[in-house]
Specification:
Elements: H1 8-28, H2 30-37, H3 50-74, H4 79-105, H5 109-133
Helix pairs in contact: 1-3, 1-5, 2-5, 3-4, 3-5, 4-5
Length: 134
Amino acid sequence: MIYLSVNWLAVALAAAVAWAFGAAWYMVLARPWLAAIGKTPEDIDRADYRPYIWSIVCVLVMAYFVAMLTPLIAGSTTLTNGLLVGAHLWLGFSITGMVLNHRYEGRSWTLTLINGGYLLAVLLIEGAIIGLFG
């Protein structure tokens, strides 16, 4: 397996679009998300840029793995296969890990749905873009 043989343009574009989607997702769902984590808008340090850097790094890593795993799992990199791999990665790892941790942490189902829905959309967006690039 050659780890660097992915379409880096597709990975970068997928990560950028996924990150932009995340910004919109959490702007729309800011109030229920804040309530689910038990914070108010005043509790959020808007000057702290580190969460934004981490989110860029994370969506980039996720896009890379979607690009690397799609041809290995599905046989070829197509739109349909990218979407299927993204959905399977979400179901197999993202949402199951989140549900497991949230239940032990006593987090609300609202938080699980908001964050889990975000991750599903990110993986589908990334899978679609990477699939379109082939």
